[in-house]
Amino acid sequence: MKELRQITVRQMQPGQSGTVVQILEGHGHHRGRGHGYGFVDRLHSLGIRPGRRITKVSGMFMRGPVTLQVGRAQVAIGYGMAGKILVEVEGEKL
Amino acid sequence: MGNPNVGKSVFFSRITGVKVIASNYPGTTVGFTKGSMRLGEEEVEVIDVPGTYTLEPTSKAEEVASQMLQDGDLVIDIVDATNLERNLYLTQELLERQIPVIVALNIWDDTKHKGISIDVAKLEERLGVPVLPTVAVTGQGIKELVDRIPEATSPALPQRTRDERWAAVGEIIEHVQTITHHHHTWLERLQDASIKPMTGLPIAAVVLAASFFVIRFIGEGLIGYVMEPLFENLWAPLMMKLSVALGSSGFWHDMLIGNLFNGEIDFFQSMGVLTTGLFIPLGAVLPYILSFYLILGLLEDVGYLPRLAVLLDNLMHRMGLHGYAIIPTMLGLGCCVPAIMATRILESKRERFIAATLISIAIPCAASQAMIIGLVGAEGMQYVAMVYGTLFVVWLVLGLILNRAVRGFSPELLIEIPPYRRPSWRAVLTKLWMRTYGFLREALPIILLAIFAIGILYNLGVFDAIANFTAPVVSGLFGLPKEGVVAIVVGFLRKDVAIGLLSPLSLSAAQLVVGSVVLTMFLPCIAAFVVLARELGIKGLLMAIGIMLAATIVVGGLLNLVL
After folding, report:
1. Interface test mutation site (partner B, options A72, A75, A85, max chain B beta carbons within 10 A)
2. B120 by DSSP, 3-state: which?
3. What is the value of pTM for the model shown?
4. To the nearest whole angstrom, how far is the Cα of A40 from the nearest Cα of chain B?
5. What does the pLDDT look like over B460-469, one tens digit per residue?
6. How far is B539 from chain A (nearest CA, A)?
7. Residue B158 structural domain
8. 8 Å CB contact of A76 and B86
9. Same domain, B162 and B221
């Protein structure tokens, strides 16, 4: 049986698609220095915003950047940001 | 105006005839270029603005864009037709301003095979301003757009929130665009392969190694088969006649022809304005400028560089930068002036400082590299590898240190990856010509002047005085003959000439390695100095120079001990 569940972009598998639910604001602990001010605005301006369907293309190992397919464009985002984007994906019920 | 990487610069050069550098990655244009075009009877000014996703700027280049808007009378909004939704957000923001707008649906030719169809008439109706499909690269649709510029209007929509704008975009998209499924092309498959770690890293290694070999192959080919024969067989006999006519000695002979070795001209060592002065820029450096910028231009226009940024992001973060800093760094292998300007694509002041400092210290420009390969390579390629290896380690270690020492934060990577595009030969060759011409225009006069000044100062005995004064450092620390200081001083003018000055000193291979590294790292050349001051401010410049001097002394001294 399938159900919808929420995970972060970090947790998505390459090739998996999902719908953005929320982007968490605030400063992260990854690399200890935050993401730069207004990263939510920057994600929005690149089209990554709640309601948008995105597909994970790949993730670099060792907490490297994650590449996403957003509409017709590909966007690479840092690992920290990837942990702040919540997406809803279809998955097997546990 | 428009989003990054939608072809604004190509469009600009089409309507104004002004040639500008355009590439396939976001952030090629960081300053603004002005040109003019005829509009009816009038001559109007046109400005090429850096790309921006929104009018609320998030980087220095985007700031330039928002500021430009205040001075404009009319906006040509360039929109990527293959990525309409994202692009229309900026259009919505523009429509809220009190400024007439006309929209160019650029990259129109790509929509068909991507399975996108856009109803232009409907889009025009929805936006309330003229909309025209264009293909800036081929020039299609440009004339029609220019004809309709007088119809540009401002609907002056009320100020809205971000969500309201996106809602408006969504509504428009639903009505004007239909997308049919299309099969993945091999280019798209290659696109994905080059960004996945397992396949991407080997691809990067192959691309970089291939680039290096092709650059060297073309460079050496041009030198060996074109430039050297030209200089040896045509120019040398002519210069020998002039030498005899000048009486084989005297002030003008020394200035124009320089010293003869066994009665012959040695283009590397004679040091006359008409011999070495012409040979360094044209015979030794120009071939490498041509081959380097040809390959760089191809990599840029295909759209490969942003992928390299993603792959190297991890490494660059340890140096206080993020992956995108690889673009200015690659440009630095050509010339550090455009490279330091390109650091504007980085978001924070800290990153810009680190990137600019690293580039000016550890990245040798194409002119220096050509001379290093010419001079040091004559002793064996292993010594050239030593120079590059040392500079790479310096780049890495200095980056690690600066990351710990410089305050402030470095944001994470957030970039759009452009699709691979087949580069147009016309565009690649235009860019190559602009960069080569730029080198000749900027460098040739300085090189001739430098050689002339060196001749005069030698005659006056000034260099002997300096050499005795600095002997402890130059000889004691770096293990170079004390006359080596002349090269270091000249390095402030031109690094290629400076490295050339090592040639008459009859150095050992190890000394050549030390000399090349010291000359590369020590003070930036005058052009780099000016651009560093402009981009970092005087305080930043002084800090960068302090780091430079300290690093040079440490590395030069160590290298002398080891070799």
Report:
1. A72
2. helix
3. 0.88
4. 11
5. 888 888 888 8
6. 24
7. 8-182
8. no
9. no
